[in-house]
Amino acid sequence: MTVLADATLETTVGEIEFRRGGSGGAVPVVYLHSAQGEGESLAMLEELADTYDVVAPVFPGFGASAGLDAIDDIEDASFHLLDVLDRLDFDQVDLLGLSLGGWMAAELATRWPERVRRLVLINAVGLYVEGQPITEIFGRPLDELAGELYADPDHPVAQMMRAMAEAETDLGAIPFDLLRPVIQSQAATAKLGWKPYLHNPKLRGRLGRISAPTLVVHGRRDGIVPRAHAEAYVAGIADARLAELDAAAHMATLERPADIAALVRRQLQT
Fold first, then answer.
1. Which residues neighbour 121 within 8 Å (Cβ) at sequence distance 6 or greater?
2. 21 DSSP β-pair partners
């Protein structure tokens, strides 16, 4: 598999990190990460980079990416992502995103549909569905969240989250380098999705503006985003398709990288 290399990019809000690797394909493949900030050594992206030019920007507030102070809401986030595409000289991209990244991908595709050739939304937040709320993620015990994020209790990240939960009464027992990304990601996500909670009330009515062939992926064991949200995305986007994954929860790109990569490949070839 092709390993993505680390790089930096100066944007209007500050310098951000991004990862890039591979070559080929009609247009670049851009991956927008979730509130977990995944991307480094992500097997799904490495598989795609064997045949595509893959780019994974790190959103401000995650990792070493600067500029979160200049971003107040999802509209600011959308313009930041547009700036990233412009500075990378990407006229059009194949866009995929997980959870928070899926929301950002949908927002970008409604505002500038001509910039998105193909769209893949994986366990995306961003919508409000009556009676089907997105599970609360802020201030939750990490061991509880682990069971909602990962179908496999033995996944390394799920194990790490449970270990951190066991040590939370003694913060000195948790190395700060391990704790810092969790605090950073929670703060950055809250900046965009605290109120209203992880959705844009206007997005559902704008989904019809998306012109890219769209695949909506739902992990059957997702404990964060109910299936009804995937169905709402499919209903709102013309000719969108729904794909469901068994033995996958919210962090499907980490749990089922080969399956996600295969779904993305098929979508990009349509």
1. 96, 97, 102, 105, 106, 214, 215, 216, 217, 230, 233
2. 54
Between CA 108 and CA 243 the distance in angstroms is 22
Q: CA dist 82 to 57, 87, 92, 107, 199, Å?
A: 12, 9, 11, 11, 20
Helices (H) and strands (E) in the chain, counts: 10, 8
Per-residue pLDDT tens digits for 229-246: 999 999 999 999 999 999
Query: Which amino acid, 228?
Result: A
Is beta strand 214-219 parallel, antiparallel or unpaired with respect to 116-122? parallel
Tell me the pLDDT tens digit for each residue of 114-166: 999 999 999 999 999 999 999 999 988 888 999 999 998 889 888 888 887 77
Statement: residue 105 has pLDDT above 60:
yes
pTM: 0.94
Report DSSP state, residue 204: H
Q: In the predicted model, what is the mean pLDDT of residues 162-171? A: 69
Cis amide bond preceding 28, omega within 30: no
Instruction: Compute CA 29 distance to the chain's CA centroid, rounded to the nearest angstrom.
Output: 14
Determine the angle formed by the axes of helices 176-193 and 100-111, rounding to 10 degrees.
40
Task: Measure Cα distances from 127 to 34, 100, 241, 262 in Å.
Answer: 15, 11, 17, 26
- Please state, in angstroms and rounded to a whole number, the distance separating the CA atoms of residues 269 and 239: 16
Distance separating alpha carbons of residues 200 and 66, to the nearest angstrom: 24
H/E element, 16:
strand 15-21
> Contact at 8 Å (CB) between 250 and 99?
yes
What strands, in cross-sheet order, belong to the sheet with 5-10? Answer: 5-10, 15-21, 54-57, 29-32, 93-98, 116-122, 214-219, 241-245
